[in-house]
Amino acid sequence: MRCVVFGATGYIGGRVVPELIEAGHQVRVVARTPAKLAEVPWRGRVEVVRGDVTVDDEVRASVADQEVVYYLVHSLTRRDFSDVDREAARVVAAAASSAGVRRIVYLGGIVPQHTTLSRHLASRAEVGEILRQSGVPTVELRAAVIIGSGSASFEMLRYLSERLPAMVTPRWVHNRIQPIAIRDVLYYLVRAAALPAEVNRAFDIGGPDVLTYLTMMRKYAAVAGLTRRVVLPVPVLTPWLSAQWVNLVTPVPRALAVPLIESLVHEVVCGEHDISSHIPEPAEGLTRYERAVELALTRIRHAEVPTRWSDASTYGAPSDPLPTDPAWSGGSLYEDLRELHTDADPDTLWAVVESIGGENGWYSFPLAWSARGWVDRVAGGVGLRRGRKHPHRLHAGEALDWWRVEHIDRPRLLRLRAEMQLPGLAWLELGVEPGPDGGSYYRQRAIFQPHGLAGHLYWKAITPFHNVVFGGMVRNITGAAERGLSDTSASPS
C-alpha cells in the first residue's frame, strides 16, 4: 500500500518506516526539516516531502494519493502541547478525509478509567478521538511505557536505576504498569494498516508482564548487573515535586519529565486485549520485560540505537555518534575533545597514530600510564601488559594494552574501546584530516559513559589531570610526526 508517515524524524516514526518498507509498502515521509533524514539508511527507498502538520496546504499535499496515514506526531516538550496537538490532529483528519485515505494509524497512550487524566494522557486521548471522528477508519493503538533503546520512558527508568542505588520516591512507584517492547509496538503498527474498513476504534496494547515502577527499576538493575536498588516511598512527593526531582538529579529536560511523571500517577494497564481478534500475536509471543530491557541495553552497548526520542525534540538535545545516546539519557556522556594543527603531512601523522601503544608508549606522562596499568592489574584488569602485535600496524579487534581496536579507517580514524576496570565505558578516538593549506589536523576525543554514581564521580576526579594526560598526547603525537617517522619508536614523554 501507499503509506505516508507523519513524524518520521521521531523515535517511533524513524523505526516504523524501515519496517513498512520491509513489509513491501511504498512509503512517503513528511518532515518540517527534510535535511534531518539525509543520512538515514532508508533515505533512498522513500519519498521525502516537506510539511508541517499544522499547515493545511502542506498536509493536503502530503496525503494526496496515499492509502494509509501514520500519525506519529506530538509536541510534548512544548508548554502548549495540548493546543498544538489538537490543531494538528484536526488538520490531518480533514486532509485525510478529503483525500479519500483508507486508513489512519495512530499511537497513543493507555487511558485509565474513572479518574482525572494527566494533561499528557488527556491530550493523547483527545487526538485519538479527533482522528476516529474524521470519517476515515482509524486504529488507535494505546501503549503504556515503551521499553526500547532511546525511548523517553525507558531512558528515564534507566537513568534513575543506574545513577541512584538508593532513592526516596513518591507512592506512585507502587502503581501497576504494563510495559511493552518497542519491537511489539512496531509489529502492531505495521499490521494495523491492513485491517478492514469497519475497524474504527482504539486498542490497548501491552506486553505479557504487569509490574510496578519499583519492580521495573529493580528488574532493570538485575538485567544491567547493578546491585539491588533501595527505594523508600514517601507520601509527601507530589507528581510535580517528583518531576522537579527527576529534572534535578538527571539531565532529562523538565519539559519532558513533568508530563511523563504526571502520567505515572495512574495505573496504566490494558483494559482489554481485543487487538488479538484482528492481529495475532508474534509467532514467538510478546516480549517479556526482562528480555526487552536486555535487547535495549545490547543496542546501547553496541552503539546501534537507530532512533532516539530526542530526535524529534524541539530543544535539540545533543547526541554523539559514539555511543548513540542523547546527552540526557541514562548513559550520559562525558568527553575531552582536543585538536591541533601540525606541519606534518597526513600520512606521516597517521603513521604515528597507528604506532601508538605497546613499546611505543602513549605519548604522555609515562609514569601516570604505568601507575594506572598497575592499579588495573591489582583490580583484576588487563593492565598494560598485553602490548601490541606489530610495532606500526593495527587491525580491528586486536588488543592494544588495555584497549581493544574497535574500528580503524586507515588513514583517517582509529577508535579504541577501553577494557580496563572502570565504573563505565570508555573510548578513545584519534583522527587525522588534511589541512586546507597544507599540513594536517590531529583530532583526539576521549569519551566516557558512566555506570551509576561511581562513574560520574570517577570522571570528575580525573578531570584535573586531563590537560596533562590528554593535552600531552596531542602535543607529543604531533611533535613526533613533525620529527619524522624515525623518531616514532623513541620513548615519548
From TrEMBL:
Alphabetical list of InterPro entries matching this protein: ComplexI_NDUFA9_subunit, DUF2867, NAD(P)-bd_dom, NAD(P)-bd_dom_sf
Entries under Gene3D superfamilies matching the protein: NAD(P)-binding Rossmann-like Domain (3.40.50.720)
SUPFAM superfamilies named among the record's database cross-references: Bet v1-like (SSF55961), NAD(P)-binding Rossmann-fold domains (SSF51735)
NAD(P)-binding domain location: 7-113
UniProt cross-references to Pfam families, sorted A to Z: DUF2867, NAD_binding_10
One MF term in the entry's GO annotations: protein-containing complex binding
The protein, known as: SDR family oxidoreductase
